[in-house]
Amino acid sequence: MSDNMGGGSAPAPTAKDEEDPLPQTTNSPARSVKFAGSSGSKSPQRSLQPRKKSFVDRTAKFSDDVSSKDRDGHMDRLLKDKRKSMRMLFPDQAESCASLDEDEEMGADGDLSQSVETSMQKKQFEEQSEFVRSLQQIIDGMPGGAGAMGALPDLEIRLKKFSFKVPSRANCPDKDGIATVATPLYKMKATLKKYLLYHKREKKEKQVTNVLSNVNLVLKPGKMYLVLGPPQSGKTSLLKAIGGSLPQGDFPSGYKEKKYLTGQVIYNNLVCCGEGADSSNENLFKNLVAFVSQHDTHAPRLTVGETFVFSGCSKDESIRLNRKGTCEKGKVGLTLKGLGLSHVKDTFVGNEQIRGVSGGQRRRVTLGEMLVFDTPLLCGDEISTGLDTASTVDILRILSYTNRLFRKISVVSLLQPSPEAVAMFDDVILLSEGHVIYAGSTRNAGEYFRNLGYRQPDSMDDADYLLAVASTDRKLLATGENHSAEMLATVYEESWQHANIKAEQEKDWKDNWAVVTGSEAIPKRFMQKYQNPFSIGVWLNLRRFFTLWTRDKIFIRASVIKNLAMGLSVGFVFLNTTLDSSYFGVLFQGNLFIMLGAMTAAPEKVDARAVFYKHADSNFYSALSYVIGEALAAMPQMLIDVLLFGIFVYWMVGFVPSAASFIIYLLLFFLFTFSMGQTMGLLASVAPTKTVVQGGGAVVLLMNVLFSGYIVAPNVIPIYWNWIYWITPLSWIYRSLLLNEFVHRSDGQQVMESYGFLLPNDTPYGREWIGYGFAYIIPYTIICLVASAYCLHRFRMEKQGGTSDIAEEKDEVECEVSESNTFNEESFIPVDLSFNNLCYDVKASKGSDKLRLLKNVSGVFSSGRLCALMGESGAGKTTLMDVIALRKGGGEISGEVLLNGFSQEKVSFRRCSGYVEQFDVQSAELTIRETIRFSAELRLDKTHPARTSPAEMDQHVNEMIAMFELQKQADVLVGNEEEGGLTFEQKKRLSIAVELAASPSVLFLDEPTSGLDSRAALLVMNCLRKITDTGRTIVATIHQPSSQVFDMFDDLLLLKKGGEVVFYGETGVCSSNLISYFEGLGVTPMNTGENPATWMLNVLGEHISAKGQSDGEDEVLSFATAWNQSSNCADLANRFAEINETRDEEMEIKFDSTFPVGWFKRDNLMGNRLVKIYWRSPAYNLARMALSVLIALLLGSMFIPIRNHLVFSEAEITSVLATIFISFIIIGVLSIVSVLPVMLNVRDMFYRHKAAGMLNYWSLGRALGTAEHRFILIASFLFCIMFLPVSGLAQNPDLSLKSRVISAISYWDSSRSTRQYTPTLVSSSCV
């Protein structure tokens, strides 16, 4: 078929030449795989021969002639197999399937094959997917077939001239600057200058950035669409546009454009978003879409099965009513089986702090959570991140099957899709800088760009080729004119593919919802906002939060210990007291204790808020049902707190021995605990960060404490602050508690009057005011609940990550490695790392059983060789690397690890190795250059050439930056998810650069290409290849390597689920050793052009018959057993014996000291680093300074009416002394709560530095003291200079200033120490 480009006819497709054969291999299963090198050599074990250049290497030259390789052979076979299989499964759709494959001849009557052959092929295809087989069996057994599983409306989506714009970063004058504590001063100066010179300046319109430009698409039911494009091309925005979740509205005044969205996204003739959006059907649009985010946001203490069940019960009434749970016959069980998660259904989802499923399995949980319920549209954003190719293809096969079965639309973006994954899609949508440069058949995509003059190298598959054309690398492929993204979009708009789309957009709607409405067009369940009644939504959330609470054992234990300790200590201090002031103090202290407890739980609600946002986008439940369910689930913890603390205090102190008074006492304490929990929940629903929550909580604490009636007597409170006294919940509770105690005494009214508790008309309070306390606090709590729900629903405080869809200019640089300094062989000691029979056992998430994650794993990582650590998701790849790298703190480890034949020693190993985590943590306040230099300064050995002078160190750092193409961002802050910063792929490159800056002999990388596009992945792998060729040992886990990437590895260690080895050794030329080994076992032979890495993982799922040894019967072959019985495994055992016998004493890894640099330099570098971090943390430091000033003014203003009194009444002098006392408490609490979130980040970074052998606790402690104390001094000084003059207590300021500074420093230091030794923010706050 010819392509019509730019109004002309495209050149005819070139004839396909004969495919290049693979090297001849032997199919014997006993074929020996030769191991390179010997443990006793002093030099790298691999000859340093230059490798074949890949296309991202700018020194590579492409052949000028057209590739002779049969590019489309493998892809064509995959596409034809898919369509043929679909015709077998869906005979009624044979005609439409046939129209998609013009090369395949069919009879006029549509008969595809004989019935017997059809059924056999159909059965064979079904057996490829366990999910498909199970689903097909269930459907066949249903009277109504697929229709009995729930009707889905046919949905057609059209995007017409759709564009999406956002404010440009160019509008920020300091966009490239770094915010510091002094930034507000500069902004004030700039603002003042701006207004002073306003009449002299011309008003300029603010600029906008086009994220998506003039997108025209038609998405048909029953089809799968692949969205491809390099980073910052607009993939996520396009998916959100299709799903109707982009922000709508107008730009503020002063912008060049008026609206964020132009054009339209139309669902069956109803405008979902854009111009003329139908807001009345907003609920319908949400219910039609299942959006899978690229971020894995879950409740970590729920199991995989519970997560799926909750999702299903929230969106599908049948799942909730049939009560099948995770049974294999139910939807949840089928989804678990289809995604390969059945064996981990009872395992926690987990996160960075809580052990759970693997990263790849967690990604499947994110996908499965949206697949449990049925929707006609699925939008998946990078669903394959962390998954191996086999798992990805299997998931896509399931999606393809369900798409055809239920006529759904699936729009999925992938980062590094394999040919097998691409073949599962009907159409591909290719984006470049926000422009659609191709949208059409998957099969014709490559030919389209080849006809435009872009050559496809032999080693590049179609997906990599399309991504290269969409990126700036297309200039390396152009044989003629190199088009810009705008030019490619223009050419595409003149093509016949785009003309077909425009013609489709003008056709009449098959299902016109604008004309035909009601249940006959749209099922009722899609019209309802929520699938469950309000009470069911509350119950589901209550059950979910209660489960999460019962599994947080650390928090429960810490709370029990805290309440017992506080209750007993207060009880013994005031044991059977007879002083009236003690009763006042004990009751106030109890309420203060409750408020502090509520503050500890508030920051955790910020993390839970992200899960709510995800559920709210899919209409799981209402915000009010979420808030009420969470509040009810917190009641057991509140009861524990009140009972443990209240009972001991009440009877030990000696309050009124009356059952009624005791019950009222407990009820008041419980109500106040509940109300403060909802107050802090309201704050957490609107605060953008945890730091703001902590600061706001301190203000709430201050207002309640100051106006409770204890610190300042009610009759001393100035008239202008009286309104605060009457609205603070603590004042009502405290007054009711006092009346509950003193109303029974004859002198009770006199005691209350002496402490200023009188009505405004100077009459005493009566017993009825206890009831008024209940009457106030209950509506107050209800208002907080409703307000929290409203704020969660109305305001979205979502984290803003890197500018993933905002294109930036990129520098075109070469990936060159200097051989003079950084990577010469004298700067490190070559290391051969061997390990034998490694086992790792952990305790199961539920129950007391132990799980064996690694089972007798053995292998050798040789110097000068790049080893791939591969296997199915959850096979134990990261676990094995963590065990070898001494990164596992728990569990039981057995086995042997040797370095050059000598036992692994912790200090030496840390100094000679580096470790790049999959989701590495870097300090957000430092630039790329500063981050890399800090690692180099602290980790490079004193003999390294970069140590000779500062200039050499600068050159070393610059080489790291250039190697990973980070020159443009070298002086940009790393940033974080809350405030923005580097993109994910830029952070990934930075993490590798940080470790390489230390010049390690052994480098471990956990999925270095995960989350990267093909270009970035090849860039990273090229650099790793060149570093390996210098003699270093590099080991990397990898999930979806392309053929190019896989060919860069020398060795392979392949694991299966259960942590067992199924292959280890040299892969061979074009993976010949690997292929011959598995084909010798009887697996399906590899097709020409197929990716060996994908084929290898696919065959692991095959059931191969092996001859039984005892009775001659056939049994399923175990790949692990076959490996253990192979000659390869025997050769490996001989290698271990050789290592022990021939080890060379000169090759032993030894260091004279624990750290590469002395303690003075470590302390100096760490101190300077933290000082810089604090200086660049204006939100943290300015907030506490502003709070210090605010608190000082508020406290001081309490005494303005009496500041000139020469004689004070008893109530007045008591209030003055109490205020001075509470000022110590407030500033101390402010220091505690404000430093905890900051210390969490500092601690996480310290753990990373400590594991790398960079620092110890003393260096961190001294650095924190250097950074923190100066700001504490400033905050204390500001407090005193505001409080003393305003309050009139300036006659003796020295004592107050000195004692307050000492108090703040001591509070902060104890808080810092507590945070270092407690696992979570909540537990440290409890302590």
Uncertain spans: 1-72, 94-127, 800-804, 807-821, 1107-1113, 1292-1298, 1307-1327
Q: Please work out how many helical segments DSSP would assign.
A: 46
Query: Which class do the helix and strand fractions yield?
Result: alpha/beta
Task: Give me the Rg, rounded.
Answer: 34 Å
CATH A-level architecture of the domain at 825-1147:
3-Layer(aba) Sandwich
Helix amount = 40-55%
Strand order of the largest sheet: 8-9-10-5-11-12
Global morphology: globular
Averaging pLDDT over every residue, what do you get? 79
CATH superfamily membership of the domain at 825-1147? P-loop containing nucleotide triphosphate hydrolases
Looking at the structure, the CATH topology of the domain at 825-1147 is Rossmann fold
- Content of β-strand: 5-15%
Main sheet makeup = 6 strands, mixed
> What's the CATH class label of the domain at 825-1147?
Alpha Beta
Care to describe what's here?
With 1327 residues, the chain is of the alpha/beta class. It has 46 helices and 26 strands. The chain has a six-stranded mixed β-sheet, sandwiched between helices. Strands 18-21-22-15-23-24 form a six-stranded mixed β-sheet, sandwiched between helices. β21, α35 (1014-1028) and β22 (1033-1037) form a beta-alpha-beta unit. The longest helix is centred in the last third of the chain and has 42 residues, at 1210-1251. Mean pLDDT is 79; it is low at 1-72, 94-127, 800-804, 807-821, 1107-1113, 1292-1298 and 1307-1327.
